[in-house]
Amino acid sequence: MTDLIPRDVLFGNPERAAPFLSPDGTQFVFLAPHDGVLSVWVRSVDRDDTRMVASDARRPIRNAFWSPDGARVLYLQDLGGNEDFHLFAADPRGGEAPVDLTPYDGVRVDVQTIDPHRPDRILVVMNRRNPQLFDVYRLDPHSGKATLDTENPGTIAAFADDMTMTVRAGVIMHADASNEIVVRDDANAPWRTLAHFDPDDGTPSLVGFTVDGGGLLVVSSAGGNAARLMRYDLAAGTAVEIAGDAAYDVHDVQFSPKTKTPIAASIVRERRDWIVLDPAYADDFAALAAQVPGDASLTSIDRDDRTWLVASNVDAGSVTYWSYDRTARRATKLFAARPSLEGYALSPMTPISFQARDGLTIHGYLTTPAGVEAKRLPAIVLVHGGPWVRDEWGYNSTVQWLANRGYAVLQPNYRGSTGYGKAFLNAGDREWAGSMRTDLLDAKAWLVHQGIADPLRVGIMGGSYGGYAVLTALTFEPLAFACGVDIVGPSNLNTLLASIPPYWETLRATFTRRMGETEAFLREQSPLFRAGEIRAPLLIGQGANDPRVKIAESDQIVAAMRERKLDVTYIVFDDEGHGFARPENAKRFNAAVEAFLARHLGGRTEPPAPHEAIDAFVR
Q1: Could you tell me which of 174, 171, 182, 126 has the C-alpha nearest to residue 151?
Q2: Looking at the DSSP assignment, which residues form a beta bridge with residue 321?
Q3: Residue 511 — φ and ψ, nearest 5°?
């Protein structure tokens, strides 16, 4: 067995992360610790003149980018995990305190568009006028003056603007979960329908306009199974395919800031692949494939499209970041996010697939402990949240931690996960406690049948929907798993839907279509009302400020279990929201999880350090 990897190495702050290139390509902003808290730093590309420019002692900053003229560094920050993000601006020289550009209580801001060729404005969306709706504002990145640009007519869930930063497209979700793209010819013209999408087609994603303004680029599965990149002609209403795959969805589309045209689209199959859309970039993507290890993704491009910043993701090592010179076609490594991992043996991640009980193919990823034969191991079925996302190949701190402690880790992309086409996605509709749940039982059965897992030592763990999946596993099939770890998981689907954030109201039709429409049906799918069936030990983690899955979701199932004297441990962090952003909380919680799993499954443990004491957070 390999050496224990300390939790501080796996879950402490990265040394450096998330670089983002300045518009002129001479500097980049990145995240790194300051006084133990993830903060914003700036340095030049060609020399290390690093300086810290923004920090929040209460909470890590987890994103940073540039104003369109490169004169200020911007970042989004909430308070205690409440997800009411404000937009802040900092001096890249580090000489001035950051300024809150959107100082509106109870308001959430998201960035719509930053164009490095239009330095005097950015477009943001805010629910300042109505908590349930986002309007588009023009924001001066220096003064912070916000001017209403486009008022939401009350139905639009997402906007798109053209090359002149004129908002000209939107997506409407109807009550039956069908969707409609509306467009207009200019800022003063009325909205008109461009295309309708059946509920089975899911929600189209607006990618952007063509340079001439006559076409709209959309990722949609209409007319096929997998989501493809389509070009809609605004005058004729017709659509043509630009890129796609028969089985896997288009995941991301990369544009050139200089030409404003799409250059490549990514598709995540077992691993990430790129489809080059512009032949002028074929040699660049070939150079990246040859020089950068693992799966590469572009994080930022300078305004002249000469320098790229690239993230490299491998399975058994730290994420690394690279600069790429298009003129020389040469990639240069900047840094690793967690260089301290290099001293430890990490475990490779292997793509797998198995047949569910109804014959549907389920894809996923298996990671087993390095240096140990993969036979009759204790195991964890690790369930992703969402549920309308998917797990991908690459480094994952939680997976490496569990594998290092001796567990086989299986990450199934159960039905209802995205990326595998609309038939696979729609197969999860109204199946949260049905076939989505039995897919996880079939994942366990696959582990056992392969001889990898000891059938009596398989646990289940997940966050958000994954936490709900843990609760359904332990209530609907009480003897299937030896223990469970639920992180911010809902226990009652009716109270969950009644308490979603107001700015999700335009998306409510998706929730009701995919979860269920009637109170009686949702009650049947809710593990709270089966709490008395639980036989396996359960550990629950919750953030007190969670706006998505309110603390009541965990409170009520803990109360139901304790009333019946069932084995539950409940940990709450008063300064967290939907998940644990502060590394000190993540390490405390994971120390408790590690001891819990060792007690019930028999894996290895690292003794808790003094800074990982959990007693004050147990309720």
Answers
A1: 126
A2: 311, 335
A3: -60, -50
115 is catalytic: no
464 is catalytic: yes
Q: In the chain, where are the structural domains located? A: 342-617
The vertex-230 CA angle with 224 and 232, nearest 5°, equals 120
Q: Which residues neighbour 360 within 8 Å (Cβ) at sequence distance 6 or greater?
A: 415, 424, 427, 435, 439
Instruction: Give, in order, the Cα–Cα distances in Å from 578 to each of 461, 549, 573.
Output: 16, 7, 11
Other residues' Cβ atoms within 10 Å of the Cβ of residue 450: 15
Structure tokens at 120: 């005097």
What is residue 39's predicted lDDT score, i.e. its pLDDT? 98
CATH number, span 342-617 = 3.40.50.1820
Place of tokens 């004491």: 613
Of 578, 483, 464, nearest in space to 539 by CA? 483
Q: Are 65 and 23 in contact (CB under 8 A)?
A: no
Q: Each residue of 538-568: pLDDT tens digit?
A: 999 999 999 999 999 999 999 999 999 999 9
List, for residues 89-147, the tens digit of each pLDDT value: 999 998 889 999 999 999 999 999 999 999 999 999 999 999 999 999 999 998 999 99
pTM higher than 0.90, yes or no? yes
Contact yes or no for 523/494 (Cβ under 8 A): yes
Amino acid code (one letter) for 268:
V
25 and 326 in contact (C-beta within 8 Å)?
no
Angle at 374 (CA atoms; ends 368, 378), nearest 5 degrees = 75
Q: Which residues contact 567 (CB under 8 A, 6 or more apart)?
A: 536, 537, 538, 561
Nearest-angstrom CA–CA distance, 580 and 173: 31
Q: Which is catalytic among the residues 249, 491, 546, 600?
A: 546
- DSSP secondary structure letters along 136-170: EEEE-TTT--EEEEE---S-EEEEEE-TTS-EEEE
Q: Is 273 a catalytic residue?
A: no
The residues, ordered by sequence, that sit 6+ positions from 105 with a Cβ below 8 Å of its Cβ are: none
Helix/strand/coil (H/E/C) assignment for every residue in 360-388 = CEEEEEEECCCCCCCCCEEEEEEECCCCC
**Catalytic-labelled residue, pool 464, 491, 526, 554:** 464
pLDDT tens, residue by residue, 144-183: 999 999 999 999 999 999 999 999 999 999 999 999 999 9
- Among residues 86, 363, 578, 600, the one annotated as catalytic is 578
Distance CA 296, CA 415 (A): 27
